[in-house]
Write a structure and sequence with these properties.
3-stranded antiparallel beta sheet, about 300 residues, alpha+beta, Muramoyl-pentapeptide Carboxypeptidase, domain 2, 4-stranded antiparallel beta sheet
Length: about 300
Amino acid sequence: MYAYERAQGNVNHRVVKAYSSTDRSAEDAWNYFAAGDRAQKKRERRRELSENRLRLTESEKKEGRAQRRRKRRRVALGTAAALIAVAAVGATRYRRAGETSSGRFWIWEDRGDGGVNIAGQEADLLMLVNKDHALPDGYLPRLHWLENKSCAVAEEMYPALKMMLTDGAKEGLQFVVASGYRDSEYQQRLLDEDIAASMESEGLSWQEAYDKETRETMPPGHSEHETGLAADIVSLDYQMLDAQQENTPECRWLQENCSKYGFILRYPRGKEDITKVDYESWHFRYVGAEAAQEITSRGITLEEYLEEA
């Protein structure tokens, strides 16, 4: 037996024990041990795979938590910026409320329901803004503050938005406009923050992080939020910009009814290759009633609608 084990290159006390406790030959004892050893290695491999899956799951959960923290921070920053702007505007009927980095003044008129920037220009409801189509140089929309002062939207969109959310509230739904108009400086800060977070948490290069994050956060000058015609609308009970938002009653109602008020779901599922943006169940764009109803009924995107026009 000893010579046989040496020939196999493995002297193991378990082989000796297996041989001495049975009537097996030395070769049978060796095969007996080898089979047990293979079974043990399979168990160890399964345990290793299970541990790897657990680590991966924890890593995904950690990244998910990080993304959710960024989303919460984004909503909070937007609200804080709005409140600061409101404080700057004040109650004066006409007042220069601030100057942008390009030197343009915001001039607000208090109309008793949030105030309107009267220095901006009329919005083109079918304006296409995406990664390939930038905002016109010098674009500055007329903005109307929501009554709760949470954010501002284009003056042309405000009545329809108010009507839609009011009608939804009559159905027992509770909405939060998490984000409306954003200027280019704020859009740049959001993108920089998301890129830095992806580089840190996933070890991506800057370009890799940029490509990943611009599937959701557009570069400045290419964001619909800068038109004033887009709004991120969420449920009061679930104020997260993530995959679970579409399961809320508020999101389902909006997707089913928004076209009646002139809105479309701007980045629908299954159209990512056209919009170049991941599905966002919360992002609604005002295009006017006629266009909204055709786009929604045909299941197409704004890009496809304008290409056919």
